[in-house]
Design brief:
Helix content is about 70%, strand content about 5%. Helix 1 runs antiparallel to helix 5, helix 5 packs across helix 7 and helix 6 runs antiparallel to helix 7.
Length: about 160
């Protein structure tokens, strides 16, 4: 599949805008969560297991919030789902565009291993920066796992469309 230079340039711009959004979302301090101590989870699937347990016990919809009959669309969007569901789904959805846009922004074909390394490197860099420099963020191996799953799903969508 030969790619037009203008289309590749457009996808490079989209990828750059997405990366800017990604880094703002993940690397700016969270003022509501400053702990002044470094927190890290290096045990795989611990956080994911806790989130699944919470979802199994409490569900993924916050029915108490919906019982208040909210009318503000922003509040409905932010508070309808439980924090556990938002964390699991959010970490996966957040990296879908990387797996999809990165191959489109390249003139040469991107193989699975190449995409895997780029996605893994990006999420590891984010978690490392969070661990080293941000006290309001928690570095977590489970975020790497979920981000990698999301990025690879994005890559598989790219391969399916290609």
């Amino acid at each position: 599949m030969s790619k037009n230079n203008r289309i590749v340039f457009l996808f490079k711009l989209l990828l750059l805008a997405y990366l800017g959004f990604l880094f703002i979302l993940t690397l700016l301090p969270d003022a509501s969560n400053i702990t002044y101590e470094t927190t890290v989870n290096l045990i795989p699937l611990t956080t994911i297991d806790n989130f699944f347990y919470d979802i199994m016990v409490n569900g993924f919809i916050d029915w108490e919030f919906l019982a208040t009959k909210p009318t503000n669309p922003t509040e409905i969007l932010l508070y309808t789902f439980t924090d556990s569901f938002k964390n699991l789904a959010g970490n996966i959805i957040l990296f879908l565009p990387l797996g999809f846009l990165y191959p489109l922004a390249r003139k040469n074909k991107v193989g699975f291993f190449h995409a895997f390394v780029v996605i893994l490197g990006t999420t590891c860099a984010i978690e490392l920066i969070q661990y080293l420099f941000l006290t309001s963020r928690r570095a977590d191996i489970d975020d790497i796992i979920l981000n990698l799953i999301g990025g690879l799903i994005g890559y598989l969508v790219y391969k399916w469309i290609e």
